[in-house]
């Protein structure tokens, strides 16, 4: 439904994907409350799945934004999945995910977190306006710098926790 050049369909599709992904995470959790392999994957891969349809946009600004979200999400999901493969589980989640009521709260919060964090991208997909090319380039540079910074931080924290397992980083 387009109103003055805006089409909310991509935003609503993204929202539905976040909700569906977290409902799926909750259902998996009900059958395997002590497995944590799916927790971070569901939360981070939802961003890639929600941004993927926008890659087919006719607007390069939307395509670049979608590509940045997909790259970040896949990178983060890969790291978090590797981390849980190494540790087997996340001890912080044992009590929460073992209770269906607390798990429902966890997955609801996760869906809301995804919806809020994805707003800049998903709202940006509601218009086909070309946008300012300098702003698009600056956004790509910032996205790249953010991905590199997060990767370095994850690497540093990973190394710290391996050598100081009980210390706070």
Count helical runs: 7
Overall pLDDT confidence: 89
- Termini separation comes to 48 Å
Task: Order the strands across the largest sheet as they lie in space.
Answer: 1-2
Helix content: over 70%
Shape: flat
The proportion of residues in beta strands is under 5%
Tally the beta strands: 2
Encode the helix/strand succession as letters: EEHHHHHHH
Q: What structural class should be given to the helix and strand makeup?
A: mainly alpha
Biggest pleated sheet:
2 strands, antiparallel
- Rg: 18 Å
Structure explained in plain terms:
Helix content is 75%, strand content 2%. With 169 residues, the chain is mostly helical. The chain has a two-stranded antiparallel sheet with strand order 1-2. Helix 1 (9-31) runs antiparallel to helix 2. The protein has helices at residues 9-31, 37-51, 60-87, 94-98, 100-117, 119-124, 133-163, and strands at 2-3, 6-7. The mean pLDDT is 89. The chain is built from seven helices and two strands. A hairpin with a 2-residue loop joins strand 1 (2-3) and strand 2.
Summarize the structure.
The protein has 169 residues and is mainly α. It has helices at 9-31, 37-51, 60-87, 94-98, 100-117, 119-124, 133-163; strands spanning 2-3, 6-7.
Task: Give the secondary structure arrangement, pairings included.
Elements: E1 2-3, E2 6-7, H1 9-31, H2 37-51, H3 60-87, H4 94-98, H5 100-117, H6 119-124, H7 133-163
Antiparallel strand pairs: 1-2
């Amino acid at each position: 439904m387009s109103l003055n050049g805006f089409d909310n369909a991509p935003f609503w599709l993204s929202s539905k994907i976040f909700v569906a992904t977290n409902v799926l995470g909750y259902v998996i959790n009900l059958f395997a409350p002590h497995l944590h392999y799916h927790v971070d994957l569901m939360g981070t891969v939802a961003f890639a799945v929600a941004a993927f349809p926008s890659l087919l946009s006719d607007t390069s600004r939307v395509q670049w934004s979608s590509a940045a979200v997909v790259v970040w999400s896949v990178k983060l999901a890969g790291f978090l999945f590797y981390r849980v493969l190494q540790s087997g589980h996340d001890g912080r989640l044992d009590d929460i995910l073992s209770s269906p009521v607390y798990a429902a709260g966890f997955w609801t919060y996760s869906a809301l977190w995804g919806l809020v964090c994805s707003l800049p991208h998903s709202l940006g997909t509601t218009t086909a306006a070309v946008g300012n090319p300098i702003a698009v380039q600056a956004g790509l540079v910032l996205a790249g710098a953010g991905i590199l910074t997060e990767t370095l931080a994850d690497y540093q924290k990973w190394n710290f926790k391996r050598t100081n397992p009980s210390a706070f980083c």
